[in-house]
Structure formats: C-alpha cells, structure tokens
C-alpha cells in the first residue's frame, strides 16, 4: 500500500515541536511493517537539506490565483530516514529557513498543497491513501473531491491526524481564488465561522480523522478554539491513536547526545553521571533533586504560570531543589522566567532557545519533568522522560492522562494533578521532593518507567488497521 504523509515538519529535516518527531518516525515503522510510506513536506533551507543529496524528480509551473509559480519536487537520494522523502520547492515562496510565521504563510501552505496535487496528478501516480497532518495540508481532502483538476484522484482515501487542534490556518474569503478550479457549489465545505478554515474543511472532507490520544478526541468537542460543534458532529469519523516514540533515537543506552549511557539493568550510575554533567553546566548541586521543563513557552503548555508557581515553591522549599527550563516562545513568559533566574540564581536556571542535544541531556540527567499543560494532545516529553527514567509530573489532560499513572495508584510511576494552576504545581513539587527522599522508592519507580513500552510498533499497526479498514473502498 502506497501512502503519502503530508506535513509541515519532519525530524530531522525541520523540527519545531512534536509534529516533526511523529512524522519522522511513523512512516519508518510503517515501512518496517510492509507499507510503502513516503513523506512530502515543504523545502526549508536548513542543515539537513544542505548536507544531503537530492534529485529533482518533477518540475512544472502552477497558478496561485493569477501568480504563476515554478516548482520542483526533490527526492532525498538514499532514503536514509527509512522512507522516501520529497520536498516541494518553490523559489521565492517555499525555499526559506523558518517553518512558520512568515506573513505569507497562507500562500506558502496553499501552494505546497497545490504543487503536491499537481505533481501526483500530472505524473499519473495514484497513491492508495493520503495522510494529512494538521491544518497545513488540510485543504487536500476538499481539493481532491471538489477541484476539476484532480477528478482522477477523487477516490483516493484521505486521513487527517490532528496533532494540535488549537491552530486552524484560517484565512479570508478574499483568497478563495488561490484554490484551483473548485466547484463553487461546495464552498460551504471550506467554511467555518465566516472564514476559509483548512482544519475544519479537512475534518469535514477527510474519510477518517485521528487524534494523537483517545482523551484528546473527547476534549476537542469541549475545547478546540471554536471547532467544538464540528468535532461533535463529525465524531463518528474520529478515533484516537496514541503516539509512539522513536526508540532508536531516544535510547539512553545508545544516545550520542548524552555523555553517559545507561540501561534499565544499571540505571543509577549512568543517570547520576548525566545529572552531574547537567548540573556542572548550569551551576546546580547534583545531590539535590532536579526538576526540569522542556517545551514551547506558550499558554497551552501552562508556561505562563511557571514563574509564579516556581517562585512560591522556591519560598516553600528554600534551597531544597533545583529547577531548569529549556524553551522559547512568548516574550512575556521568557522575560518572566529570566527574571525568576535573576531572583533565585542558586535554584533556577533558564535556557531560552532551541537545543536538541540539551533536551536529550535534560531527559537523561533530571529527576523530574514538569508538564503543567492546559492542552496536551499527546505529549512526547513525558514519554521521553519515562524512557530515560525521569519521573513525569503531569496535569491530567489529553495524552498525559492516557500515558501517566500516578505513583500513588496501583502500578503507577508518575505524578498527576488536576489543574494547570499554581496550587497544583506547588503540590506536585512538594510530593516530588518528599518522594526523592526515599531513594529506594525512586529507584523502583525508575525501573517501572524504563520498562514501559511506548515504541511505535503498536501505534503504527493501529494506523495500518485504519488504512485497511478503508480498503474495500480502495
Ligand atoms: N526548546 C527546545 N529545545 C529542544 N527541544 C525542544 C524544545 N522545545 C520542545 N522541544 C522538543 O519538541 C518536542 C515537543 O513535543 P510535544 O509533544 O510537546 O510537542 P508539541 O506541543 O510541539 O506538539 C503537538 O504534537 C505532538 C505530536 O503529535 C503532540 O505530542 C503534542 O501533544 C502536540 O501539542 C519534544 O521532542 C521536545 O523535546
């Protein structure tokens, strides 16, 4: 079965967050299970692209409204990622460094989708399925069915996976003419709340949609930035499949990004040595419990309440624990955290920026990982933490609820709390510090955590089962 994954991100080509991790791993594991899965993404002028060899497999021009665009499809020569990787390059529009936040982002993603469809249409390819990820490829299900240009492909099944339902990619009707030769009687399928809404359109037009955890599927009908009623109406098409992690990249026993390797058989020594390295770099005391936070500094992740919650915790437990934060995002949050570091230089350190290697070291060298997310469709950080024997402290929401069991419950191994609030974060930190005093218990929990299996094997199969359930129609 030949499947194209369409995504704005893919690790290690271009990563902003967890979307890249998933799209960089799922197709690899699907191929191991006998599928022919490929990734198609926009071209970014970044390290991976500069350092690898690509062949031009297709060239043409297309129209974005009245603007003629020349595009090419590049293929990575060796399939070194475990799948065919295709990049859509459009000089002057899709050939830049950053993934998001250009003023013409709408034009970029529409052009990406049109170029992909033109390519497979003109080159007479008929994939067995197209798998769209988030709103960046959300117009594809509509265009396949309701643009005259692609009628040959109208029966190709489409699946949408929602990694983040907060972002919809909505734009005004003045840009309708960017969409090629559509059936105007069907424009209602593009609309939500008076705008063209790619995520809403994908939910309406795809054959099936998935969320990256079962709990998140339920939550979208209650909170999805305005699409609640749509998710309620379309609920029969949805299912939740929890993300896996790439256990080749995230392996404490074979991770080139950490100085000391360790396995479940011998956790304490290696983990303590990594902690030592981390503490030396950030001026901490390795004997004290180390709590960390990694992630985008945005409201969804509860990052805005971190400064106040941590300040209170530092006062409740003066000198008793260290706190390390790695992230970038909203300026107000960044400044709040930098201010905290100034006021509590002994207990708190903050690294503003994006650093993949440092993230690996933090998962390996921390005792606890704090995740007070308001919204967490799946969450990968807690899964990486578990794999590196670091105890996740999570708010009970979305995928965090589906993957972490409180250590107070039978078979549990993490810390869970109900609210993204200062009170709950402070309580969770107090529980963590009490737990840390019981070294034997901590060691026991680390063993449980590291034995958990969140590899892609099971989830990749679930996606394939879903693809095959559309088979009679294929
Ligand atoms: N400053 C930094 N430096 C280095 N690494 C950093 C970093 N900030 C974040 N990361 C890394 O980025 C990834 C973030 O993963 P999340 O699952 O939290 O992603 P995100 O919220 O972006 O994705 C959305 O999609 C994913 C995938 O489906 C869902 O798990 C998630 O709930 C949903 O919000 C992890 O690999 C983390 O280590």
TrEMBL record:
It catalyses: [(1->4)-alpha-D-glucosyl](n) + ADP-alpha-D-glucose = [(1->4)-alpha-D-glucosyl](n+1) + ADP + H(+). ADP-alpha-D-glucose binds at residue 15. Pfam families: Glyco_transf_5, Glycos_transf_1. The keyword Glycosyltransferase applies. Gene3D superfamilies: Glycogen Phosphorylase B. Keywords: Glycogen biosynthesis, Glycosyltransferase, Transferase. Its EC number is 2.4.1.21. The keyword Transmembrane helix does not apply. SUPFAM superfamilies: UDP-Glycosyltransferase/glycogen phosphorylase. GO terms for molecular function: alpha-1,4-glucan glucosyltransferase (ADP-glucose donor) activity; alpha-1,4-glucan glucosyltransferase (UDP-glucose donor) activity. Synthesizes alpha-1,4-glucan chains using ADP-glucose. PANTHER family: ALPHA AMYLASE DOMAIN-CONTAINING PROTEIN, GRANULE-BOUND STARCH SYNTHASE 1, CHLOROPLASTIC/AMYLOPLASTIC. This is Glycogen synthase. It comes from Mucilaginibacter gotjawali. The gene is glgA.
């Amino acid at each position: 079965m030949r499947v194209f994954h369409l995504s704005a991100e893919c690790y290690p080509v271009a990563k902003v967050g967890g979307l890249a991790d998933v799209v960089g791993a799922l197709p690899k594991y699907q191929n191991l299970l006998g599928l022919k899965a490929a990734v198609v993404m926009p071209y970014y002028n970044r390290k991976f692209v500069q350092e690898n060899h690509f062949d031009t497999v297709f060239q043409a021009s297309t129209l974005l409204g009245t603007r003629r665009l020349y595009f090419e499809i590049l293929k990575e020569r060796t399939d070194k990622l475990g799948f065919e990787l295709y990049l859509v390059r459009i000089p002057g529009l899709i050939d830049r460094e950053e993934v998001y936040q250009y003023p013409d982002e709408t034009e970029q993603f529409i052009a990406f989708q049109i170029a992909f469809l033109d390519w497979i249409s003109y080159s007479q390819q008929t994939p067995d399925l197209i798998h769209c990820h988030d709103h960046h490829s959300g117009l594809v299900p509509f265009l396949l069915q309701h643009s005259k240009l692609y009628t040959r492909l109208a029966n190709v099944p489409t699946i949408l996976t929602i990694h983040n339902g907060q972002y919809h990619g909505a734009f005004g009707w003045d840009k309708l003419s960017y969409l090629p030769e559509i059936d105007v009687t069907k424009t209602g399928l593009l609309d939500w709340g008076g705008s063209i809404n790619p995520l809403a359109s994908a939910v309406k037009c795809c054959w099936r949609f998935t969320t990256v955890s079962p709990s998140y599927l339920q939550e979208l009908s209650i909170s999805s930035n305005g699409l609640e009623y749509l998710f309620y109406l379309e609920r029969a098409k949805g299912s939740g499949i929890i993300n896996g992690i790439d256990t080749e990249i995230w392996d404490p026993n074979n991770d080139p990004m950490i100085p000391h390797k360790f396995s479940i058989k011998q956790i304490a020594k290696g983990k303590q040595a990594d902690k030592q390295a981390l503490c030396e770099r950030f001026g901490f005391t390795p004997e004290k419990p180390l709590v960390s936070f990694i992630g985008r500094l945005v409201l969804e992740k509860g990052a805005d309440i971190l400064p106040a919650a941590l300040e209170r915790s530092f006062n409740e437990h003066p000198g008793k624990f260290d706190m390390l934060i790695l992230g970038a995002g909203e300026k107000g949050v960044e400044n709040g955290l930098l201010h905290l570091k100034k006021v509590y230089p002994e207990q708190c350190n903050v690294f503003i920026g994006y650093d993949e290697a440092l993230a690996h070291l933090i998962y390996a060298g921390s005792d606890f990982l704090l995740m007070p997310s308001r919204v967490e469709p799946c969450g990968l950080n807690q899964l990486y933490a578990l794999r590196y024997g670091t105890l996740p402290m999570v708010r009970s929401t979305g995928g965090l609820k589906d993957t972490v069991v409180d250590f107070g419950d039978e078979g549990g191994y993490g810390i869970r709390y109900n609210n993204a609030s200062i009170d709950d974060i402070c309580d969770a930190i107090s529980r963590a510090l009490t737990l840390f005093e019981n070294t034997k218990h901590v060691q026991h929990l680390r063993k449980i955590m590291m034995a958990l299996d969140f590899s892609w094997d099971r989830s990749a199969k679930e996606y394939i089962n879903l693809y095959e359930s559309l088979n009679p129609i294929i």
